[in-house]
Structures are given as C-alpha cells and as structure tokens.
Design goal:
Elements (H helix, E strand, L loop, with lengths): L8 H12 L3 H8 L3 H8 L6 H10 L4 H8 L14 E8 L2 E9 L5 E5 L6 H10 L2 E6 L5 H4 L2 H8 L2 E5 L10 E3 L4 E4 L2 E7 L8 E6 L5 E5 L2 E2 L2 E2 L6 H11 L8 E4 L5 E2 H7 L15
Helix pairs in contact: 2-4, 4-5
C-alpha cells in the first residue's frame, strides 16, 4: 500500500510558526526576511538556500530536511512486520486515516489501535485470521480516529483502553496512566505519553513481533508532526523521549500518512534537526 506523506512543506512551516506563537511580523524580525518575501520563502522552491536556512533556523527546523521534502526527495522505505500486523487506511472527508491491528500468532489474541473512518478492513482481517479482539487501544479521541468505535465493538467486541486525560470523552472505556504495559498473548503493549496534539495522546510500543513497532497516532507523521495544540516544545520533547528514543529500526505507525522508522525520522524530519549533524550549504 503506497500512502503519500501527510504534510507539505507549507503545512510543516505553518505548524512550527503556530507552535512557536509567531506572527508573520515576528517571524520576519526573527529570520531577517522581509515580511513581503516570507510567502515565497515558505514555499521553499526556487529561493536561495540561505533564505530557507534563515527561515528554518527562526522556526527551529532543519533546512536540509525542508528542502528535501519540498523537492519530493523524502518517502520513507519500510518493511512492515511479516506476521501479526495489519494497517487499514480509510477515507474521512478529504483525508485518509490509519488504524492498525496487531495480534499474537500463537494465541490469536488481537488488539486494534483506533478505528479509522471505516472499521470494515479491521473486522475483515480479524475474521480472515480467526482472531479474538481482546482490546481496542486509542491513540486519542479525535473523531476521525474513533468514529467507528461502537461498530467495531458491536462486530468483534474488545475492551477499550484510553489515556486518563481523555477518559471522560468515552463512556465505558478503561483509563490508564501511560507507563503501564499490557499483555496480548505473548506480546507486550507498552504505553507512553505523547500528548500535545491532544490532551491524552498515547504511543503504544509493541514488543514481541518480528520487528519493533510503535503506534504513534497523530504525535508524529513521516517528515512532520501532528498539529500541536498545547505546550509545543514540551510536546516535541515527549516525541524525542517516548518515540525517537527507540531502536533505530523501530517501525513507526502514524495516524495519517505512510509508515516510517525511528532512523528515517531522525535524519529526515525537520522538527528534529539536532539528529542531523551536517546541513547542506546549497541546493
């Protein structure tokens, strides 16, 4: 399944600007770029690299990564786990949204992560493999991720688990504080706090598959992050601590866009320029 990147360079720049609370006038003053020239530089293409560098530094982004994204040079290459893993990509309005199924092949016990806009692919995969849905874990409660929750429960059951900060949004869900680990047959599901995009954003690290896997919701996208609504710099640090601290080959499964890996985001995501030691000096 080929899924395009969720964000354009313009999206990325807008998220950083909003996260830092900078108006165009603030950004112009901080970057040394005239307000009238900002829009052209935000498009990145066809402008001198020194202008992109000024803008990126003012927004605390990696200029080389921004240019690579603008030129269409970044598309993560990922080999998904061979067994016990399924990605569903469904349409919600004018966007697509991901949901995931993970299972222990020895016992047939499964867990869903979010529902997507249509639970049918998850239900079909459960029936195809004769699985028992033990749990439905939510990365957060934005409507595009939970709109099929009632239907999924009706069709195949499963207990709902959610970060304590968003438990009030759902009746009947079992809340937890991130840091706990749940069992799924021989698999283990470790919960980590990645709130910022939402009050109860949660990343689930799955241990026991043939490759390390983290289901990250809208905390992180390939080449970008989800829109951060509160505590921008704190939220980025949570991503560093609770997602990018994993093994380099850890597969990252986001709520939108394609699968990626820890090492590819360390080297190609402009929100984390500290991981890239050398920036290009010219385009």
């Amino acid at each position: 399944m080929s899924i395009p990147l969720e964000d354009t360079v313009t999206d990325i720049i807008g998220k950083a600007q909003r996260g830092l609370g900078l108006s165009d006038a603030d950004l112009a003053a901080k970057s040394g770029i005239a307000v009238g020239d900002l829009e052209a530089v935000k498009q990145v293409r066809g402008v001198p690299f020194d202008q992109v560098t000024k803008l990126a530094k003012a927004l605390e982004l990696g200029p080389r990564s921004l240019v690579a994204l603008a030129e269409g040079k970044y598309q993560p290459a990922v080999t998904a786990p061979k067994t016990g893993f399924f990605q569903a990509n469904t349409t919600y309005g004018d966007m697509t949204v991901n949901a995931y199924l993970v299972w222990d092949t020895a016992t047939g016990l499964a867990a869903a992560f979010d529902t997507g806009a249509d639970a049918t692919p998850l239900v079909d995969e459960i029936k195809k493999h004769g699985l028992t849905l033990q749990d439905i874990y939510l990365t957060h409660t934005h409507i595009d991720h939970v709109t099929e929750l009632d239907r999924l429960c009706e069709k195949v059951g499963g207990s709902i688990g959610i970060h304590v900060n968003e438990a009030e949004a759902l009746d009947g869900a079992a809340s937890f504080k991130p840091g706990v680990t749940f069992s799924l047959g021989k698999l283990h599901v470790e919960t980590r706090d990645t709130s910022g995009h939402s009050a109860g954003g949660t990343t689930y690290h799955i241990h026991g598959l043939d490759a390390p896997l983290a289901i990250v919701g809208d905390a992180l996208f390939a080449g970008s992050v989800g829109g951060i609504r509160a505590d921008y710099k704190v939220a980025l640090q949570r991503i560093r601590d609770n997602i990018l601290s994993g093994q380099d080959n850890t597969i990252l499964a986001p709520g939108h866009g394609p699968l990626t890996t820890v090492i590819q985001e360390k080297t190609s995501n402009p929100f984390f320029p500290e991981f890239r030691q050398v920036e290009a000096k010219e385009i």
